[in-house]
Amino acid sequence: MYVILEEQKSSGSTIPQAWKPVRVTGQYPTSLGANQITLKGNLIYNSITYGVEIYYIPEDQRNDINKHISTARAIKPGQPQPLVVEIKVNAQGKAVPISIWIQDRKYHFN
Q: In the Cβ-directed half-sphere of 90, how many Cα atoms lie within 13 Å?
């Protein structure tokens, strides 16, 4: 299963915008728009997984990241916080996480 994602226009923020899913297909697409990518997923019990749902935080950053997430949640309790995971996608549609944005701060994975 493949999901076609389309880049969203920037809101002027330094935090990247999440890409929007625009199409799902059973076969790797042969043509994409200039602002689109293909992400390979696996359908399991009516849910699609992409292999980026679990990632490992570098040991030396773990405490800082966890504190930052807790602080961000405390600012606006009950509301989703600006948290964006940046991924790298290869030509076959497989993805790996490379960084995480929490509010306006970016943490790189090694």
A: 6
DSSP label at residue 66: H
Which residues in 1-110 belong to E strands, given as ranges? 2-6, 20-25, 36-40, 42-44, 47-49, 83-89, 95-102, 105-108
Q: Rounded CA gap, 76 and 59, in Å? A: 27
Higher pLDDT, residue 2 or 55: 2
CA–CA distance, 104 with 53 (Å, rounded to integer): 21
Q: How many angstroms separate the CA atoms of 31 and 34, rounded?
A: 10
Strand, helix or coil for residue 73: helix
pLDDT by residue (tens digit) across 39-92?
999 888 888 888 888 777 778 888 988 888 888 777 666 666 677 888 899 989
What pTM was estimated for this model as a whole? 0.74
> Phi, psi at residue 66, to the nearest 5°?
-60, -40
